[in-house]
Design goal:
This protein has about 350 residues and is an alpha+beta fold. It has ten helices and 16 strands. The strands form four sheets. Strands 5, 7, 8, 9, 10, 11 and 12 form a seven-stranded mixed sheet that branches. It has a four-stranded mixed sheet with strand order 1-2-3-4. A hairpin with a 4-residue loop joins β11 and β12. The N terminus is likely disordered. It binds zinc ion.
Length: about 350
């Protein structure tokens, strides 16, 4: 099984959060990280209190000192098992040296598309918001199995998925809270479930591109050979049929068999489709609850004589506006318009 660099970074990021969630200290050493764990946490993990982790390639060079963090390595498998028992729920406050204070009208114009409407910034204000970073282990099952980790970032106040936020987070200063974090409430859990089922597939699409391609190729190859096989079979049966000396009953019996070939071929093709169809399953492995400063931008969407006021959020991690939640379907979007009953809607809901 091959892993690209991106997945290694994900695994490493997950591992470091796992250590921190268990009270560990993580020190960045370039490609590797030094980990200092409390005694109890080290024991459940079967590690010393102090150790070094790194990507497989580095670990291979220096196997005695660096523990590999990569899928299907013993260390990460142990962590994922432990994480599954009680999903590590880290809590952190994001720290910023600087947050943009102006120029939001320009940013909004660049970022959003307004359907038959225009936007006006009314005012801005410093505010706080909450994000949840959910690390999921995905399993794509077809004729083969492919697994990996994927991160989904959700703004808990608006329920929208924030694209590309995970990358920005790894380099950001975070104050981890060691206090036991409060769990999520029912409504938040439900909204996360919706988000995972709605966007999970899209998020892993890129990672699975070569997997999907390879399954499609095999499907086409097997379909072509099935076609060839049944064509040859039919031809042979017809040739046999034209041979003299067959009784009428035998001819009829064989003609019936020939007539059944298309149905048989269709059934075999359906089997192939099942064999190479891809089912994707997500299991949450860890969650990080982030509180962060943000900028609330109060805007007015104007469409003809109608208008509606709402707020947008500037996200200092992505240095971009968060998508806006459609007031009809809840999906995050950068394409908005005003519906006749004055809701801010995505293009799908505008119809
Ligand atoms: Zn919508």
């Amino acid at each position: 099984m091959n892993f690209d660099g991106h997945e290694q970074i994900d695994a490493m990021d997950f591992a470091c959060r796992f250590f921190k969630a268990r009270g560990g200290v993580v020190e960045d050493q370039g490609l590797t990280r030094d980990i200092l764990l409390p005694e109890a946490a080290a024991q459940t993990l079967g590690m010393d209190e102090f150790f070094r982790v790194g990507p497989e390639a580095v670990a291979a060079e220096d196997r005695s000192k660096v523990h590999a963090v990569q899928l299907h390595t013993p260390l990460l498998d142990r962590m994922l098992t432990l994480a599954g028992e009680s999903a590590p729920f880290a809590r952190a406050e994001l720290k910023f040296d600087y947050i943009k204070t102006q120029g939001f009208d320009r940013l909004i114009e660049d970022r959003f598309q307004f359907h038959k409407s225009k936007i006006r910034v009314i005012k801005t204000g410093e505010a706080r918001t909450r994000y949840l970073v959910l690390t999921c282990r995905y399993t794509a099952q077809s004729d083969e199995i492919k697994q990996g980790l994927v991160e989904i970032c959700v703004n808990l106040d608006t329920g929208v998925v924030i694209p590309d936020m995970a990358q920005g987070l790894s380099h950001l200063q975070k104050d981890f809270s060691v206090k036991k974090a409060r769990g999520l409430n029912e409504k938040e859990i439900e909204s996360i479930r919706t988000v995972v089922s709605r966007y999970g597939q899209d998020l892993v699409q890129e990672r699975l591109a070569s997997f999907v391609e390879s399954m499609n190729r095999r499907f086409q190859r097997d379909t072509a050979s099935l076609d060839a096989y049944y064509q040859a079979l039919e031809k042979e049966m017809r040739q046999n049929l034209s041979r003299s000396g067959l009784s009428q009953d035998l001819v009829r019996e064989r003609e019936e068999k020939i007539a059944m070939i298309p149905a048989e071929l269709a059934a075999k093709k359906k089997d192939l489709l099942n064999k190479y169809g891809i089912r994707i399953d997500f299991k949450p492995a860890a969650a990080m609850y982030l509180t962060s400063a943000c900028v609330r931008v109060f805007v007015r969407l104007i469409s003809g004589r109608n208008n509606a006021d709402f707020t947008m959020i500037y996200n200092p991690v992505t240095k971009d506006m968060d998508p806006v939640a459609c007031q009809s379907c809840g999906a995050g979007t950068y394409d908005i318009g005003l519906c006749p009953n004055l809701n801010i809607n995505c293009l799908n809901c505008l119809g």
